[in-house]
Amino acid sequence: METKANYLMIGGFVLGVITLAFVFIFWMTNLAGGGKPYYIVFNGSVAGLTTGASVGFNGIKVGEVRSLALDPQDARKVQVLVSIRSETPVRANSSAAIQSLGLTGGSGIQITAGTPDSPFLLATAETPIPVIQADVGLGQGLFDAAPAVMNNANVLLTRLNQLVAENQESIHKTVTNVENFTAMLDQRKGDISDTITDVRDGAQSFKNLSGKLEVSLGSNVDGLTHSAKDSLQAFGDFMKEGRRTAVTLNRILEKFEADPKGFLLGGNQVPEYTPRGNSTP
Predict the structure, then answer these.
(1) In the 8-state DSSP scheme, what is residue 104?
(2) Could you give the residue ranges of the DSSP H alpha helices within the chain?
(3) Which of 78, 100, 161, 220 is the most buried (most CB within 10 A)?
(4) CB of 66 within 8 A of CB of 20?
(5) How many domains does the chain have?
(6) Cα dihedral sign for 259, 260, 262, 266?
(7) Cα(36)–Cα(57) distance, rounded to whole angstroms?
(8) Which helix (H) or strand (E) covers residue 120, if one does?
(9) CA gap 278, 246 in Å, rounded
(10) Up-side HSE of residue 191: CA atoms within 13 Å toward CB?
(11) What is the pLDDT of residues 180-207, one digit of tens each?
(12) Residue 11 belongs to what domain range?
C-alpha cells in the first residue's frame, strides 16, 4: 500500500508539472505574446520569415508569428497568423510589411499605427480573426529581387575575372608605364616647377603691359580725336577750293571755244589797213 501511495504521489506530481508547463506555454503564447490573433495575407514571397519571428508595432516588439500557410483560394498568396498583445492599438487602416532584421539574419513583420481617426480592427462574426492589410513595401521588394541581384552580381564578377585574366599582360604593361611616367615626373619636378614659374611671370608681365597700354591710350585719345577732326576740316576746305577752281576753268574753256582769237588777242581788235587814194592838190 505504501508503495502504491508513493507511485500516486509521483504520478500526481508529474501530471501537475506537465499541467503547469502547458499553462505557462499557453500564457506565453496568448497573454505574454499578445493574446489577439490576426491574419496578414501577403501577395508574394515571404522568404526569410519563419514561425516565431518578431512582430513589431512602430519599432516595438508586440508579438510573434504563429504559423505560415498558403492561401487555399490562391496559391500566390501566403497567410501569416500572428499573435499581438491585447493593448496594441491595431486600427482598420494599419498595414503590415516584411522587414529585414539586419546583420542578424531572418525577417520580421512591422505594423504601422494607422491614423487616429480610424476605428480599431476588431473581430466580427464573419471574420473571427481580423485581417491586417499587407503593404508590399521596399523591404519585401528587396527580398524578392535579392536572388536576381545576386545572380547578376555573380555573372558580373565572373566576366570581370575573365577580362582581367585575358588582359593581364596589357594591364601589367599599363601599370608599368604609369610607374615609369610617375618616376619621370618625380625626376623632372624641378624643371616642371621652373616652367610653371616662367609661365606665371610671363602672364604677370603681359598683364602689366596691358595696363600700361590702356593708360597710354586713355591719355592720348582726346588728342587723336582733335587731330582727326582738324584733318577732316582741312580736307573739306580743300574740296571746296577744288570745286571753285573747276568752275573757273570751265568758264575759261567756254570763252576760248566761243572766240579763240578774241580770247588770245584780247578784247580790242586792230583795224584793217585800207590804202588812201591819191588826192588832188
Answers:
(1) G
(2) 2-26, 138-166, 168-187, 189-258, 260-265
(3) 78
(4) no
(5) 2
(6) positive
(7) 14
(8) none
(9) 57
(10) 5
(11) 888 887 787 777 877 888 788 878 877 7
(12) 1-32
How would you classify the pairing of strands 107-111 and 54-57? parallel
Q: Give the type of residue at 194.
A: D
Distance CA 258, CA 178 (A): 101
Last residue of one domain, picked from the residues 136, 160, 192: 136
CA dist 214 and 206 (Å) reads 12
Q: Is residue 275 part of a domain?
A: no
* Assigned C-alpha cell, 129: 480573426
- Give the global pTM: 0.42
Last residue of a domain, one of 112, 136, 160: 136
Co-location of 89 and 64 in the same domain: yes
Q: Are residues 27 and 103 in the same domain?
A: no
Other beta carbons less than 10 A from residue 263's beta carbon: 15
Please name the residue that has the C-alpha cell 610671363.
202
Cell of 207: 598683364
Q: pLDDT tens for residues 98-153?
A: 988 766 567 899 999 889 999 999 989 898 999 998 886 544 555 555 666 677 78
Helix (H) and strand (E) counts in the chain: 5, 7
In a domain, 109, yes or no: yes
Residue ranges of E strands in 47-164: 54-57, 60-70, 77-85, 95-100, 107-111, 131-134
Question: Which value, in Å, is the radius of gyration of the alpha carbons in the chain?
Answer: 58
Helix axis angle, 168-187 relative to 189-258, nearest 10°? 80
